Amino acid sequence: MTSTARRGRSSAVAAGPAVLWFLLFMIAPLVVLFVVSVGVRGPGGGYLPGFTLANYGELETRLVPILNTVRFSLIGTAVTLVVAYPLAYYLAMKAGRMRMVLLALIIVPFWTSMLIRTYAWIFLLGNNGIPEVLSTLGLADDLRLLNTPFAIVIGIVYNYLPLMLLPIYVSLERIDPSLRAASKDLGADRLATFRQVTLPLSAPGVLSGCLLVFIPVMGEYLIPVLLGGGRSYFLGNALADLFLQSRNWPLGAALAGSFILLMSFVVVGYSRLTRRLAGPLPTEGVL
Amino acid sequence: MKTARFDRLLSGYALLVYLFLFVPIAVVVVFSFNSGRHVTQLEGLSLTWYEQAWTDPFILEALRNSLQISTASAVIATLFGTAAAIGVTGLRPRAQRTIEMMTYVAVVIPAIVLGLSLLLAFVTFADWLNPWLAYLWPGDTPPELGLGKISVIAGESVFGIAVVMIVLKARIAQMDASLRNASADLYAPPLRTLFQVTLPQLGSAIFGGFILAFTFAFDDFIIAFFTRGQSQTLPILLFSSIRRGVSPAINAIASVLILVTLLALLLALFVLTRRGRSTAGAIPEESAQEPPARGGGSPASGTPSGGQARVADPQPERVRR
């Protein structure tokens, strides 16, 4: 009895510093964020204590970046899914012995700095990059790629592909090959097997991949600034401007606070929904 | 027949995606060796841009800051994260769930939200504390709290601790509890079990966690962007020069960053997979290699079953760490 109590105490001591760190540098700042969001803007920017909901009312004026961000995040997530799924299928079903190497190769670029990955596309999409190559080949003249919505979507797909691919790969890889064999034996052709067996069984991977991409893209700053040329104003740009340029902290805090709340709702609602949709799926529906 | 064509199509597609992934990075690296001033015309190989970057005092300053920040936050993350990952297993389920929840939040919270919350918190608290410091300080020039390297380190460590804890949690779950139990049964005090049984088994995972935390902090832009105050880091310097326009010198810095990250990552991958294989049920093999280095071990340690005997052996000379 005493020894378990002592063990509990030493465990608490061991976990203490990390917990303290989280409390001081993650939880407390989030509390401060919500406190500032109901405060008043100071004369030279910054913050004065107070209690008002005016900042949340003023959010209406920032509706454009919010809607912009949601739209681009949805489109970007969808395109990433379309690009990632066939590759995940290839890796799980066809890659054979090279599988682990190929998987590692997917992750390698992901670990290099996101700034550099995005910069690389400025380089490629800029006037002297792909557009020039295309016009030299006589394929297209005066093509503008950089600072367009297209560039933003490319940036999203490029930076977040692994987050979509890995969960899909895992769920595809777990599928019992005998299920697909059974489907074939029962006379289903490739497409029918894919539609009725493979796709439903990989649904959990697809759903979690979409969430894993959607969340960080919603908070994206670098991609819209560098590839969108600031034309498509994102939530991230709006926040950076409010905090670092115009220094309207209470409004910025209100925007960030509602962003956090919105994302929490999305995460909770989404996981409820997926549990209902994809929960009973594995094997039961097929057998 | 049709299947073969489909497979070929799929392989071709996979190849395209891999090109899509690697060509952009390769282009940046190749152009960093370009000798000409023109960013987009390859004229010849040279190291001009590396030389220029290497002699630029601003770049060097930023590099030094980046290395300091990422080393400090990786050390913090490794110490605290390791202690917590081991300690959490001895806590009550509710406390375990709470800590797991915090780790989860630290990973999924958008970096921009964490960054600006930290900015607010640091500035607010510095505003409160600075008058007190000035009042209480014995000398004439009291220190002023504010944004700087310290605040960046604090922010980067949040994610780092979470990463270390997640890496270690996976390894602890794989770990054979019987080794720890055997150690306890043989009257090893808990701390000795920790240093002789638990930590050696976790060594590679701890190192892997350190490297991941380091590369994250080294590459991070967003958290540093909000919490840096006047200090410069390499990604931030890179960002401001990119906004002024592309230049070959940027390619050189970017290539160095890519190289540092990839080397660290390869190292981590190597250590993690090598050790992962050897602990996954091959502990005897490890013990068979180790006895010579330890000098007169117990007679059983040379045999395949020596893993447990070694761990259980209560000879005092083993207390080395």
TrEMBL record, chain B:
Domain ABC transmembrane type-1 as annotated: residue spans:
63-271
Q: Which residue ranges traverse the bilayer?
A: 12-33, 67-91, 103-126, 146-168, 202-226, 246-272
Keywords from UniProt, A to Z, are:
Cell membrane, Membrane, Transmembrane, Transmembrane helix, Transport
State the PROSITE patterns in the record.
ABC_TM1
Q: Where is this region: Disordered?
A: 281-321
| Signal peptide range in chain numbering | none
InterPro entries from the xrefs? Answer: Bact_Polyamine_Transport (IPR051789), MetI-like (IPR000515)
Q: Where in the cell is it found?
A: Cell membrane
Low complexity bias: start-end ranges: 300-309
Q: How does it sit in the membrane?
A: Multi-pass membrane protein
The keyword Transport is annotated on this UniProt entry: yes
Q: Which family does it belong to?
A: Belongs to the binding-protein-dependent transport system permease family. CysTW subfamily.
Protein name according to UniProt: ABC transporter permease
